[in-house]
TrEMBL record:
Residues 1-13 have a biased composition (Basic and acidic residues). This is DUF5681 domain-containing protein. It comes from Halomonas piscis. Residues 12-68 form the DUF5681 domain. Residues 1-37 are annotated as: Disordered.
C-alpha cells in the first residue's frame, strides 16, 4: 500500500483517526476565491441585477431568494360571536356552529378548538394547584 492510500477497518469503515480524504481541501483556495469575489462584489451584484432586469430568471430567482424571506402560509382573521361569560365548552360549540354554517373555514375552527383544549388544560392545572394548596393549608392547621 502506498502512503496516500488509507486502510479501512472491518465492514469497510475508515479506521479511527483516519480520514477518507487525508489531504483535505486546501483552505487557501477558498480564502483566495473569497478575496477575489469580495473585491468585485459590487460589480457582481450590479451585473446580477442587470441580468435579472434583462429577463434572466435564474438571476432573478437568486436575487429574490437572498433578499425576500419565503412567505409563510397564514389564515385570514375571522370573527366569531362567542357567548358572553360562556364556558370553554360553550365557546367550542359556538366555533363548531360557525364552521358548520360556513362562517369559518374548517381548518381554522380546528385550530381554535385545539387552542381551547390547551386553555382547558391550563385552567385544570391551575384549579388542581389551588385545591392542593387548600388541602395542604388544612393539613397544617390540623397539626
Amino acid at each position: 500500500m502506498s502512503k496516500t492510500q488509507i486502510e479501512r477497518g472491518d465492514g469497510g469503515k475508515w479506521k479511527s483517526g483516519q480520514s477518507g480524504n487525508p489531504k483535505g481541501r486546501p483552505p487557501k483556495a477558498t480564502q483566495e476565491l473569497q478575496r477575489l469575489i469580495g473585491s468585485r462584489q459590487p460589480e457582481l451584484i450590479e451585473r446580477t441585477i442587470q441580468m435579472a432586469l434583462d429577463g434572466d430568471m435564474a438571476a432573478m430567482k437568486l436575487l429574490l431568494e437572498r433578499v425576500l424571506p419565503p412567505l409563510k402560509a397564514s389564515a385570514a382573521p375571522v370573527s366569531i360571536e362567542l357567548p358572553e361569560g360562556g364556558s370553554l365548552a360553550d365557546n367550542a360549540k359556538a366555533i363548531l356552529s360557525a364552521a358548520a354554517n360556513g362562517q369559518v373555514p374548517g381548518d381554522v375552527a380546528s385550530q381554535l378548538i385545539s387552542a381551547i383544549g390547551a386553555t382547558a388544560k391550563v385552567v385544570e392545572i391551575d384549579e388542581i394547584s389551588e385545591r392542593l394548596e387548600a388541602l395542604e393549608a388544612a393539613a397544617h392547621e390540623q397539626e
